[in-house]
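Researcher: I've been going back and forth with a colleague about how CHAD domain-containing protein might be arranged in three dimensions. Neither of us has a model we trust, so I'd like an independent prediction. The organism is Streptomyces kunmingensis, in case that matters for your notes. Sequence below.
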Amino acid sequence: MAQQHLDSGPAHTADSVLACYLRAQATEFLRALRQHGESGAAEETAGAARALRRAARRISGTLHTFRPLLDAEWSDGLRPELAWLSGTLAQEHAYADRLQRLNEALHRLTAVHGRTQPPAPRTEKAAPPARETLTLGAAKAAALLDRQLTLAKTRAHSTALGALGSSRFHAVADSVALLASEVPLHGGDLELKKLATAAESRLTEAVAALHHTGHPYNPDADTPWHHVRLLLRLHRYAQEVVLDGPAGDVRLKENEAAHALNAHRDAAEAAGAAAQAARTPRIAPATAYALGVLHADQRHQVEAARIAFRQAWQREAVGTP
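Model: Here is an independent structure prediction for CHAD domain-containing protein. You can compare it with whatever you and your colleague have in mind.
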């Protein structure tokens, strides 16, 4: 399919296809920026910010994968600025999702313990059963997480507003505006398909190395999985470029493997938030216990996401001609 697009005529060279894709993403970036400035409702503003992040990620990923076809100095200067912008705008949304995830997990865990562990007889000297300890600690753990993550979300919101009003952001927006009309191509003779295939090879090699990442309770083992998630995204964007051709605006949806890696990232970060809350000085033992159960639950979710990714990856590999 990609070959059909690229070979559809002499006018559709690698340079023209790449330039068409980048101009389209730059136009979407500028459209989202205008919508963000004009939006009044919080939901509309959040939607515009998501569109802005999506376009920034696609431009940045394309500059990375197809760097040999572009002016290197320009590309290397813009790409980290787009990554900064996308990461800054993502933080507020990430903290909100993390808090919701942890609250839902606490509710689920207390409900499960309440159904599966009937109350045991109590004596004066006996310690409270785990079910009761979890129930007592869950409410305070939820309140602690709410304070910490809401504060982090508020700070992220302020940081995002500051970033959008900064001279650094205006320089990025100016560069993208120029990109919408003129793409600084290098004029090399490499093919788009070869560079896209190289991106796929890097992904395949990184996936093969995941078998040696260690126990799911070791947070250090999360790093290669996060790297694979990034490589899978770059591969998807590269395929969008190759498939874009004269038709334009091709969007490839995230597959099961990508969803599993997103779930892995979310669970790992939620587990980190629970662990950080558990390190709060002078919290009650029941609160610490509930946070420990919550941390363990999220690390189990990490392992479940790894299993789901491997299964999805194998299915997709078998189904690929």
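Researcher: What would you highlight for our discussion?
Model: I'd start with this: Residues 1-11, 118-127 have pLDDT under 50 and may be disordered. After that, consider the following. The chain has ten helices and no strands.
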